[in-house]
Amino acid sequence: MKKKTRLFLILVYLSFLGLFLYFGVRLYVFFSNGRGFLNLLISFLLLLAEAHSIIHSLGFIISIIRLRKPNANYHRHAELDRNNLPSVTILVPARNEPLSILELTFISLTSLDYSNKAIFFLDGSDEEYLIANRELADKYRIGYFHPTEKPKSKAEIINLYLPMVSSKYISVFDADQNPLPEFLTETVGLSEYSKNIGFVQTPQLYSNFNTSPIARGAALQQSIFYENVCESKGRSGSMFCCGTNFLMKTEVLKKVGGFDASSVTEDFATSVKIHSLGYRSIYYNHVRVFGLAPETLPAYLKQQFRWSAGSVGVLRRLVLDSLDGKLHLNLNQKWEYFLSATYYFVGWSFFILMLCPILYLLFDIPSYFASPYLYLGTFIPYYVLMLITFYATMKKRNYKMKDVFTGIIMGSMSYPVLIKSTSAAILGRKVSFEITAKGQSGKLSFWKLWPWTAMIALNLVAVSYGFFRLSENYYAIGINMAWCLYHSFLLSHIFKLNKSPKLEINKVLDYA
Amino acid sequence: MKNKINTNNNESIVQKISEARVKEELAIPIYSSHIKQTLFWSGLPEAKQAKIIAGLRILEADSEKHVKMLKIIEKNYLRNSK
Asked: Which residue in B34, B42, B60 is closest to A207 by CB distance?
């Protein structure tokens, strides 16, 4: 084993140890710290927030360990007979998308190097878009479908079209995804290898990151997700469908009753059903499709809102189905679905972690924040080791420290939206669904930024108050002031991110 | 001597030429633009990235020539098949 690999492994196992040590100490502190109702309540919420972060750190460590071993059986292709290729229907569901974006997708789809394919544009747009959309589809000899009843979601329009599909496979692309010519030959080859394979998912790579800081951050987040998280899920047989850039056996989709239209993340919900039937999924970690990231803060937050509401909604169902004994997933799959479905509670977790130093500085709650041993002995080693492990993993994939920090900022930025969406999902309330509009400029007004500005102001008030109290307990007050300043610094990036994109989207591809 | 051309074959040949032209004229600029924009994430040294971009430019120039050739072929084929 190479020296670097050995060092990396030692780091991973140390992080593992640090994580358990910290959580053990945190549990002990919680149970031995019982002064007053408010103190107990805040301590409990903090414990939950930290448990969330610890569980997801554990998930990350497990994925690193899993990816360390090569898996020779994972990507096996069947030889395809070029004269007798299995039939594929390509579906492009879209609603009110700009023609310039649709056209790039249509060109890429017609240029796919696969003879036995049929392409259909499933147009769920409003009346004023229909004529131009149909003309564009005709121009590229693409089939056009506009349902008489207006579909409420992507899942609904696909389901309306599904009875007309007789091909062996369907492949779905969002309106802004441009596949490379080999997409179908490679994914069909993978799927043909076994009857048991339900679908093949490929990554999304956003190429418009230069248009705005939001696009850059979203592209980075997406890459981290697809390069590490998905690869690990794929290895454990629990990769879920991401709604675009995938190939699925039509028979399998029909068997589960089409896409689950009751969820705003129909792809995620449908994957649970497919895995429950015993079908396997493949994650083909090779970029064969380029796409576009949301370019504005409203578009990014809208996307986060939808994903988080959908994932937590599925969690609710997973728990209910599990209790009813209807969930037929293996342990790995249950663990991975649990991680994916609970990830978006990160908004709550960040909010509570931000609130606690403020409460301590202003009201001395929670009281155990005064303990230096907690920080120096357990929290600091855990936090530093996790950060180094994360950075070392990212460095292997050519990311820089700055990129890792951008990921942290983007993750913290969505907290008000995530709190709102996950609350609605837990309560089973319906949330609206809109496809993120691309190529449109837009930013949030100063007043709509109130959740961020209020939190920054609160942090600064706490820091000012702490400054006058510093002599009471230099250590505890100093540490909490530092946290408040760090959180204010993170949140202040909202003003930098809330900018209109530099270029119109149709000009992005015209720069060469 | 002119060969007798089957109408079905004729249509499919015209369609194939047209598809090839669309690929050369419209699809290749899309691929190369996406690749150029995301190349920095490949982790390749800058010199190698510059070499790839130079290679892509040559392919784009070739593609333009192919488009012109395909247009001529399309035109001649349609004229001869009448």
From this structure: B34
Q: What is the pLDDT of residues A457-469, one digit of tens each?
A: 999 999 999 999 9
Task: Give CA–CA dist A399/A224, Å, rounded.
Answer: 9
Q: Does B30 touch chain A (CB under 8 A)?
A: yes
**Single-letter residue type at B62:** D
Q: What is the mean pLDDT of residues A335-362?
A: 94
Chain centroid to Cα A467, Å, comes to 39
Q: Is there a contact between A406 and A485 (Cβ–Cβ < 8 Å)?
A: no
List chain A residues with CB under 8 Å of B23: 111, 181
Residue A381 CB neighbours (<10 A)? 18
Partner residue facing A207 (CB), from B19, B37, B42: B37
Cis peptide before A151 (omega within 30 of 0): no
Chain B contact for A415 (CB, 8 A cutoff): no
Continuous segment of H or E residues that includes residue A100: helix A99-110
Question: Would you tell me which residues 208-227 of chain A have a C-beta closer than 8 angstroms to some C-beta of chain B?
Answer: 208-210, 223
Q: Which of A294, A303, A244 is nearest to A439 (CA)?
A: A294
User: In percent, how much of chain A has pLDDT > 70?
Assistant: 93
Least CB–CB distance from A111: residue in B23, B36, B60: B23
Report whether A228 contacts A63 (CB < 8 A): yes
CB A42 within 8 Å of CB A33: no
Contact call for residues A139 and A172 (beta carbons, < 8 A): no
Q: Rounded to an integer, what distance in angstroms lies between the CA atom of residue A313 and that of residue B12?
A: 49
Q: Which residues pair with A121 in a beta bridge?
A: A92, A144
Type of residue at A21: L
Under 8 Å between Cβ of A160 and A151: yes
Quick one: tokens of A385?
A: 């080791």
Q: Worst-scoring range by mean pLDDT, A3-17, A30-44, A244-258?
A: A30-44
Q: Is the pLDDT of residue B71 over 70?
A: yes
Pairing mode of beta strands A178-179, A289-291: antiparallel
Cβ atoms of residues A269 and A319 within 8 Å: no
| Joined tokens for residue A211 | 């248009």
Give me the interface pTM, i.e. the ipTM.
0.81
Residue A512 contacts residue A104 (beta carbons within 8 Å): no
User: What pTM value is reported for the model?
Assistant: 0.87
